Amino acid sequence: DVGVRAAAAIQEDNAGEDVALDADGLPPGKTYDIELDRFTARLGEVFLTTKQVKPNLYCKISDKVITSLGKRPVVAYMSTGGAADKANIEHGEILLAVNGKNATNPNQAKSLITTETPPLTLKMHRPALPIVVGENQHMVKYDNSKQRAPSTMRGWKAKYVVVGGIAAKPYAMLMYYSKFEYDRVVAANLAKRHTGSDLKIKAFDLRGCRIVENQMITYPETSGPWHFFMIIPPDEATDGPFFPNVIKISHPNKEGLIPILEACKRVVEKYPTRPAKKPIPGTVPPSGGYAKVTMH
């Protein structure tokens, strides 16, 4: 469970400001070697620079650490069932070398992975710092303006929810039918091809929204309360790059809700006001409509 694994890592902002970096400029953490047959072809470009992941994965890590890491390749995405996923490599880890050859940036990492003779020995570094993985499987409700949970469990829809990520703007929330569909979108973006007309992705712009936390509801079918939070659109939102309804996002346990909640809070804190009424080119569609997602 991506969200549950990430929840324990979320701490306060500017983590690493006072940590001692080693001789290679790396923060405290675990450096290890792992042998893989090869990353699967559909995994695509999974590495981004620390600067590129700063708005999302590294949003709680200090500028001191970001600067020290420079353009080192960071694991920004893993497809379900891919070699990295099966090897339990985690989001936010840093690739240091492939078969003993240093990887200093994402392009070099990709080149080494695709050209080196397998098996591949990857030297990885797992920072002992908070990594914010703003994605997880949730039950959601977004088609009415009521500030309360559905009266029955059937009122919820299962969605794979991603805030920002590598397939959208950092202030966008996208909802997929499953993690597999998110994988398809990322793969299509990396290959610079259309995802296909069968994918319907619900997309929302979170700028200027308000979050109501610590909500619970109990259903006869559940052994305990469901935890959820609500995303309230701006008072002025009736159309344009916003949505008029209230989004409810739930999870059977509170820990599983933390990563998406923290990611949403980060967005509304950074973007406290809504933009001009005229939609900005390249943003998500009006009123939380279905999106033809492109990588930014």
Summarize the biggest pleated sheet. 8 strands, antiparallel
Q: Distance between termini? A: 26 Å
Which regions have little confidence, pLDDT < 50, spanning 5+ residues?
2-13, 40-44, 279-296
Biggest sheet: strands side by side, in what order? 11-12-13-7-8-9-10-14
The proportion of strand residues reads 15-25%
**Could you say what the CATH architecture of the largest domain is?**
Roll
Total helical elements: 7
User: What name is given to the CATH topology of the largest domain?
Assistant: PH-domain like
Q: What is the average of the pLDDT values?
A: 79
Overall spatial form: globular
Query: How many strands?
Result: 14
Structural class: alpha+beta
What fraction, in percent, of the residue positions are helical?
A: 10-25%
Q: Briefly, what CATH class of the largest domain?
A: Mainly Beta
CATH homologous superfamily descriptor of the largest domain = Pleckstrin-homology domain (PH domain)/Phosphotyrosine-binding domain (PTB)
Order of helices and strands: HEEHHEHEEHEEEEHEEEEHE
What is the total number of structural domains? Answer: 2
Any idea what the radius of gyration is? 20 Å
